[in-house]
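Archive transcription. Copying these from loose printouts into the bound notebook so they stop getting lost. Printout 1 of 2:
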Amino acid sequence: MIGVELFPNGIARYLIGGLFIGGGIASIYLATGIIAGASTFLESTLSYVSNVPRFNRLRYVGSRDWRIVFTAGIVLGAGVYAVVWQGGAWTTEVQWWRLLAGGVLVGVGTRLGKGCTSGHGVCGVGSLSQTSIVNVATFISVAIGTAQLVQALGVSP
């Protein structure tokens, strides 16, 4: 009964998504030795348009072309999902400024945590990295605390 409450639409889509994510990340790591974190992919993409030395490290510049394909796949995957399972529409009641503020806060957190949930949560925890385990525990704790605070304050979209 608890599964029905947690997964009212069934678990198949989560299982399939998890297999795609795990398989893709494992393939990238086995083929290149690079951990497939989305924030690193963004940094390597910035090497196309920025002269900042941080973004122009050899490891970023040397692998940025296929990282663009990876990043495009993330975006296109969301688009395919919207078309196939949601009739082509993706809508939210959240105001644009809240989405923007959330994106900025996620970006700051990514820099502070030296990586994102895909790098730490999928790759780092999977390889039993102590740093990643601590970071993921921090991500989850802050997310739970924020959700509880927002609910207590009565904030809605």
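Printout 2 of 2:
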Amino acid sequence: MSTENLASRDALKKMTDLVDDIKFAMLLTALDTQPISAIPMTTKKVDEAGNIWFLSGLNSEHNANIVRSSNVQLLYSDPSDMEFISIYGEASVVTDKSILEELYNKKDDAWFTGVDDPNLTALKITPKEAYYWDTKENKYISLFKMGISAITGDNKDVGEKGKLKF
């Protein structure tokens, strides 16, 4: 696996591509406590500045954790395509009505009573640093290459990994 560390625009593009592909993340809050608090979240969008957006309940434990400490970790994983990214960043709770309206859709009715629900907030995650693993191919091709490599002793490039700096 080759290492490709990226910065600025290249890092933003790589992160956006992976987040858009995977969509679901584990949001880790209260990073200074044990056990770390983790909850699954559905990504609503990655904006042009690279901020990652979610909808969240005002009275949720993770919102309370973010108010106490804004440092968060997002873990995205798609084992079927062998794509993974870990994003460290700073979170903020947003209540701006126009943002809530932009992010909200009918599927969110499972958790909220509409865009006017007083418990509805958005979470804005501003990435600071990330690390990714991406095979560039599906898992079967990657596993095949790993098997050939084990048999022949030749190192096969099964993808790339690297640090992303924003």
